[in-house]
C-alpha cells in the first residue's frame, strides 16, 4: 500500500473513530440521564410510600389505644352498675333491658356480663347464648378473657379483629367483677378506626400514583419471587403492563442483598428497584417501579438518526480534506524515497532536489549531508577494514607461533603417561604449559598463567616459557627464582604478573617435586581414594617482588596415580547464573574419571567445564596438564 493511501486511510479512520466515540458517548449519556431521572422519580415515590406507611401505622395504633382506654372505663362503670342493680333487687331481664337501652344510645354495641362459671347471663344480645371458654377454641377470641374470673381489678383489651360468628370488625375490652368472680365485657364495632386510615395506606397511595404521569405500575416483591402487592396502570386496561417477578427477580435479589437501587430498560419499559426498609408487612422486600419510556426512546432514536446524518456528512468532508492533505505529504516523500533508493544502490555522488514543505526541504538537505558523510565513511571503512584484516592476519600468525611453542606430540617417558591441552579465550592467550626432559630418568613440567588476556598476555607467556626452557636442568624452586629475576622488569613495566607451577618427576624414585609461584594447587588422583587437593606452599607470583621465596614439596607416587595441573580458566568458569565451576566440581569430576588415562582425564574435565558454561563465551584461558604413573 502506498504512503498516500496509508495517510488517507489513517486520517479517515481517525476521524471515524472520533465521530463514532462522540456518537456512542452521546447515546450512552442520554440513556444514563433517562435512568438517573427515573431512578430519582422512583426514589421519590418510594420515599412518599415510606412516609405514608410511617404515618398510618402509628395513627391506627394510637386510635386503638385511645378507644381501648375508653372501653375499659365503660366496662368498669358497667361492672359497678350491675352490682348496684343486683343489690337493688333488679331481675336479669330488667338489667338486660337497661343494657339494650344503653347500647342504643351510646357507641357501645355489646355487653357481655358473666357469672362465676363464665356464662354471659347478662347481655344485650339475648339471641346469642355465650359462655367464655376456659381452653383455647378454634376461633380463640373469647379465651383471652377467661383469666379475669380469678383476678381482682384485672382488665383485657383486644385490638380490632373480625368477630367470631359474622366476621365484622369488632374491638372488645373487659374487666373483673367488683362484687365477685365475673367477666364484664363491652364490644365496639370499630368502623371508625378503619375509616380513619381509609385511603392512606401504601396500597391506596400506590394505586393512586399509577393513575397519573408516566408511571405504569408499582409492585412489591421479595427476593424469593413472592409478590406482596401489585398496582397496574388502570388507565389502559386493554394494555396491561406485565411486571413479571421471574423476569426481574435478579434485580430484586441484588437490591435486597446490597441495598443499591437497580435500574433496567426493557424495550419501552424502564424498571427501577428500590429497597423497602423492614416493616411488619414487608420484610426483605423491594419496590419495583415501572415507567413508560416510549416517548424518551422515540426522542433518543430521532436524535441518533440526526447525529448519524451529521456524522456521515462530516466524515465525507473530512475524507476529502484528508485526500488533499495526503497528496501534499505523500508526493514529496515519494520523491525523497526514490532519491534515497538511488543512493542506496551505491550512487553516492547523487544530490537530492525535491520541492515541498520546509520540513521536506530540511529532510532533503539532511539526505545530501548524509550522502557526503556516507561517502567519507565508506572510504574510511575501507582503510579500517584493510588494517583490521592485517591485524587479524598477524593475530592468526601469533596464535600459530604460540601453539608452535607448546609441546606438540606428547613425549613418551618410561613409566609415565602425559597429556595436556590449552585453549585461549581469544585468538591468543596468557596460559602456557611445557614439558622438558631433565636427564635420562627425570622430566621437568610447568603450567603458567599470565594476568590479563589477549596479545600482551601471550607475549609475556611466550617470554616466560622461553626463559624456563633454558633452565631445564635446574630444580623447580631454582627455575622459579631465576625466571622471576628475568621476568620482573617486563612484568612491572606492563603492570602484569605470572603465576607458575613448576615440577619435576624422578622415575627411579617415583617422586614428584613441586614448587609454586602463586599458582593454583595441583590435584592428586589415587585409585580407591578421593581426589586430594595438594597443600598450597607457593610464593607470590612472578614479576611482583625482586626476591621470590619459593619452597619445594615432594609427593611420592605409585603406579596408577595421576597428577593434574590446571589454570583458573577451569575453576573460575561461569554459567548463565553467575556460578563458578569451583574446586568441588573439579574433584567430583576427577573422582568419576578415576582409573582412566591422562588423555581421557583431560578431555573429561574439559567436557564438564564446557557443559557447565552452557555455550557461553569463556571468560578466561583454560589449560590442563595430566601426568599418570603407569609403572
Overview of this structure, please?
With 631 residues, the chain is an alpha+beta fold. It has 12 helices and 21 strands. It has helices at 3-87, 92-105, 191-196, 202-209, 245-258, 294-344, 358-405, 454-469, 476-494, 568-571, 582-592, 598-613, and strands spanning 110-113, 122-123, 155-157, 161-162, 169-176, 183-189, 215-222, 227-232, 262-266, 269-275, 285-292, 416-423, 431-437, 442-450, 498-506, 511-517, 523-525, 532-533, 552-556, 562-566, 622-629. The strands form 4 sheets. Strands 1, 2, 3, 4, 5 and 6 form a 6-stranded antiparallel β-sheet that branches. Helix 1 (3-87) runs antiparallel to helix 6 (294-344) and helix 7 (358-405) packs parallel to helix 8 (454-469). The longest helix has 85 residues, at 3-87. It starts with a helix and ends with a strand. The model is unreliable at 237-243 (pLDDT under 50).
CA-based gyration radius? 58 Å
What is the helix tally? 12
Helix content: 40-55%
Q: Which residues sit in consecutive blocks of at least 5 with pLDDT less than 50? A: 237-243
Mean of the pLDDT scores? 79
Structural class: alpha+beta
How many DSSP-defined strands?
A: 21
Give a quick account of the main beta sheet: strands, pairing sense, barrel closure: 6 strands, antiparallel
Q: Quaternary arrangement of the chains shown?
A: single chain
What shape does the CA trace take? elongated
Amino acid at each position: 500500500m502506498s504512503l498516500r493511501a496509508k495517510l488517507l486511510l489513517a486520517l479517515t479512520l481517525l476521524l471515524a473513530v472520533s465521530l463514532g466515540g462522540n456518537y456512542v458517548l452521546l447515546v450512552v449519556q442520554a440513556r444514563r440521564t433517562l435512568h438517573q431521572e427515573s431512578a430519582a422519580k422512583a426514589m421519590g415515590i418510594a420515599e412518599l410510600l415510606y412516609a405514608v406507611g410511617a404515618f398510618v401505622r402509628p395513627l391506627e395504633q394510637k386510635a386503638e389505644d385511645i378507644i381501648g382506654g375508653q372501653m375499659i372505663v365503660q366496662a368498669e362503670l358497667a361492672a359497678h352498675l350491675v352490682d348496684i342493680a343486683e343489690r337493688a333487687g333488679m331481675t336479669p331481664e330488667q338489667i338486660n333491658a337497661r343494657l339494650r337501652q344503653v347500647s342504643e344510645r351510646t357507641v357501645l354495641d355489646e355487653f357481655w356480663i358473666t357469672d362465676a362459671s363464665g356464662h354471659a347471663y347478662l347481655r344485650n344480645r339475648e339471641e346469642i347464648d355465650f359462655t367464655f371458654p376456659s381452653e383455647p377454641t378454634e376461633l380463640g377470641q373469647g379465651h383471652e378473657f377467661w383469666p379475669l374470673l380469678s383476678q381482682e381489678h384485672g382488665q383485657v383489651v383486644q385490638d380490632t379483629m373480625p368477630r367470631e360468628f359474622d366476621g365484622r370488625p369488632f374491638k372488645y375490652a373487659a374487666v373483673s367483677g367488683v362484687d365477685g368472680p365475673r367477666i364484664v365485657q363491652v364490644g365496639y364495632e370499630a368502623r371508625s378506626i378503619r375509616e380513619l386510615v381509609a385511603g392512606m395506606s401504601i396500597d391506596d397511595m400506590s394505586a393512586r400514583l399509577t393513575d397519573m404521569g408516566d408511571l405504569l405500575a408499582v409492585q412489591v416483591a421479595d427476593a424469593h419471587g413472592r409478590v406482596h402487592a401489585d398496582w397496574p396502570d388502570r388507565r389502559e386496561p386493554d394494555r396491561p403492563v406485565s411486571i413479571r417477578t421471574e423476569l426481574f427477580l435478579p434485580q430484586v435479589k441484588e437490591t435486597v442483598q446490597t441495598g443499591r437501587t437497580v435500574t433496567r430498560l426493557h424495550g419501552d419499559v424502564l424498571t427501577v428497584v428500590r429497597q423497602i426498609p423492614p416493616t411488619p408487612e414487608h420484610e426483605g422486600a423491594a419496590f419495583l417501579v415501572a415507567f413508560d419510556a416510549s416517548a424518551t426512546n422515540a426522542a433518543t432514536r430521532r436524535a441518533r438518526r440526526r447525529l448519524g446524518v451529521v456524522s456521515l456528512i462530516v466524515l465525507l468532508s473530512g475524507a476529502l480534506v484528508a485526500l488533499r492533505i495526503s497528496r501534499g505529504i505523500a508526493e514529496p516523500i515519494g520523491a525523497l524515497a526514490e532519491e534515497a533508493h538511488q543512493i542506496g544502490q551505491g550512487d553516492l555522488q547523487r544530490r537530492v532536489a525535491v520541492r515541498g514543505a520546509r520540513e521536506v526541504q530540511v529532510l532533503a538537505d539532511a539526505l545530501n549531508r548524509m550522502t557526503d558523510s556516507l561517502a567519507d565513511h565508506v572510504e574510511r571503512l575501507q582503510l579500517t577494514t584493510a588494517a583490521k584484516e592485517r591485524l587479524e592476519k598477524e593475530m592468526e600468525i601469533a596464535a600459530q607461533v604460540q601453539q608452535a611453542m607448546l609441546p606438540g606430540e606428547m613425549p613418551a617417558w618410561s613409566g609415565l603417561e602425559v597429556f595436556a591441552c590449552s585453549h585461549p579465550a581469544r585468538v591468543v592467550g596468557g596460559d602456557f604449559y611445557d614439558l622438558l626432559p631433565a636427564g635420562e630418568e627425570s622430566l621437568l613440567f610447568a603450567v603458567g598463567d599470565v594476568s590479563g588476556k589477549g596479545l600482551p598476555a601471550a607475549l609475556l607467556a611466550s617470554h616466560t616459557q622461553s626463559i624456563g626452557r633454558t633452565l631445564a636442568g635446574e630444580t623447580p624452586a631454582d627455575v622459579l627464582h631465576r625466571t622471576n629475576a628475568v621476568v620482573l622488569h617486563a612484568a612491572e613495566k606492563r603492570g602484569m604478573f605470572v603465576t607458575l607451577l613448576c615440577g619435576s618427576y624422578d622415575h627411579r624414585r617415583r617422586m614428584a617435586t613441586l614448587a609454586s609461584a602463586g599458582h593454583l594447587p595441583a590435584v592428586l588422583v589415587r585409585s580407591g581414594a578421593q581426589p586430594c587437593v595438594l597443600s598450597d606452599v607457593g610464593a607470590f607470583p612472578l614479576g611482583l617482588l625482586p626476591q621470590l621465596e619459593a619452597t619445594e614439596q615432594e609427593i611420592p607416587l605409585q603406579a596408577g596415580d595421576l597428577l593434574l595441573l590446571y589454570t583458573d580458566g577451569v575453576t573460575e568458569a561461569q554459567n548463565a547464573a553467575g556460578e563458578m565451576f569451583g574446586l568441588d566440581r573439579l574433584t567430583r569430576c576427577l573422582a568419576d574419571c578415576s582409573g582412566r588415562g591422562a588423555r581421557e582425564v583431560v578431555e573429561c574435565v574439559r567436557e564438564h567445564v564446557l557443559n557447565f558454561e552452557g555455550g557461553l563465551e569463556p571468560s578466561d584461558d583454560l589449560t590442563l596438564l595430566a601426568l599418570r604413573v603407569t609403572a
